[in-house]
Design brief:
The protein has 387 residues and is an alpha/beta fold. It has 12 helices and 11 strands.
Length: 387
């Protein structure tokens, strides 16, 4: 796509933040972020997604920089830190329950390998064209999954998180919705979620479609309307088109590398790539059934061969021209994940200049960002909007 150095400052809404208060509460290390004021776009005052603070901080798999991802502990810490929205990824069990895991392969995120009773469940499968060997949620009933415990996914990078291995179970989406309702009543406000359907075409082929059971749960908890406090998201546009038929909650199409093709496109022999979808014509098509996009950060500012940031693209401007918001992914504090410009020292697991990187991305006019470290992103957002 075409590139230029322009930003879109008109999309930035100044947060009403005098600062982010911090209180360290024992082992929790909780940082409390004060919420900002509403956005200025259409829909303001209706309690919908346009009223979220901008930049919106989305806690990626919860506060996954500090706790094993997709656990109640990770979600709770993210909420206590002040994250505006908390993300869940959905995969099904053998008996059709929706559980929160980033992948259906649970080899690296649970202690399943330590359970001899499940040794015979280990399998090799092709998921979205990728061969994987391990244990998969679709081969377990919910009762069986409940016997497992969650653990840190990348212990080599986040050694401190292994302290919490075994503390939490795999939550169901319904458990998370109940948790959000309890927290909402206690805090006197709605708790926002960002819910992703994972590998929907693959699971539909197994008779475990995600969209219908998700819609039923959203309706059960009153989260199906246009102003519902949750986004729905998927890397497969057809999943969001289906959700648009089932519920009115806002929808986001996730976008991977420019050269990639969504798996539903592959299966449907649709030749379009992500590069096609981020052209004005592709964005106009997405705007016909979704309210936003979630591009990888490299689609906002590409990196060169050395990992340094290059020239910004026009994606922010082009998406906004179609009325779409942008929640790109994913900011993490560790050097190994940061652009080379912002790495500090030689330890890949050490923290780099995440604040500097966040400032550069915010300057592009994005509406929000996914972060494993929501406290860092909240402080960066406060700095940016106080300028």
């Amino acid at each position: 796509m075409a590139q230029d150095g322009q930003t879109d400052p008109g999309r930035r809404t100044v947060l009403g933040m005098a600062g982010l208060g911090a209180a360290v509460l024992g082992a929790g290390g909780v940082t409390l972020g004060l919420p900002g004021t509403a956005g200025a776009d259409s829909g303001k005052g209706r309690g919908g997604y346009r009223d979220l603070p901008v930049p919106t901080v989305v806690a990626h798999r919860g506060a996954s920089g500090y706790r094993p991802e997709h656990t109640i502990g990770s979600y709770q810490l993210a909420l206590d830190m002040g994250a505006h929205v908390i993300e869940q990824d959905l995969v099904p069990t053998k008996d059709g329950h929706l559980v929160c895991r980033h992948e259906n392969d649970i080899t690296g995120t649970t202690d399943v390998a330590a359970h001899p009773e499940f040794a015979d469940r280990k399998a090799t499968k092709s998921v979205d064209g990728v061969s994987l060997t391990g244990w998969f949620t679709e081969d377990f009933t919910l009762a069986e999954l409940r016997t497992l415990r969650a653990k840190e996914r990348i212990p080599g990078t986040r050694r401190q998180n292994t302290l919490y291995d075994g503390r939490w179970t795999i939550p169901t989406l319904e458990e998370v919705l109940r948790w959000a309702e309890r927290e909402g009543r206690a805090r006197g406000r709605r708790i926002w979620l960002h819910i992703e359907t994972k590998h929907p075409t693959y699971f539909r082929g197994l008779g475990l479609g995600l969209e219908e059971p998700l819609a039923r749960l959203l309706r059960k908890y009153g989260r199906h309307k246009k102003d519902a406090p949750n986004f729905l998201q998927s890397f497969e546009p057809s999943s969001m088109r289906r959700m648009a038929e089932l519920v009115a909650a806002p929808r986001v199409v996730l976008l991977d590398a420019a050269s990639s093709r969504p798996w539903d496109f592959v299966r449907a022999n649709d030749p379009r790539t992500v590069a096609d979808l981020i052209e004005p014509e592709g964005l106009e098509w997405i705007a016909g059934f979704a309210q936003g996009i979630g591009p990888t950060l490299n689609l906002i500012i590409p990196r060169d061969a050395a990992g340094r940031l290059g020239k910004p693209t026009t994606l922010v401007r082009d998406a906004h021209a179609q009325g779409l918001i942008l929640h790109p992914y994913t900011m993490r504090n560790e050097n190994t994940f940061l652009p080379a410009d912002f790495r500090r020292g030689s330890d890949p697991a050490a923290y780099g200049d995440a604040f500097g990187a966040l400032k550069v991305y915010f300057e592009q006019g994005i509406d929000g960002i996914f972060s494993d470290n929501p406290d860092t992103a909240l402080l960066a957002a406060a700095d940016f909007t106080r300028r």
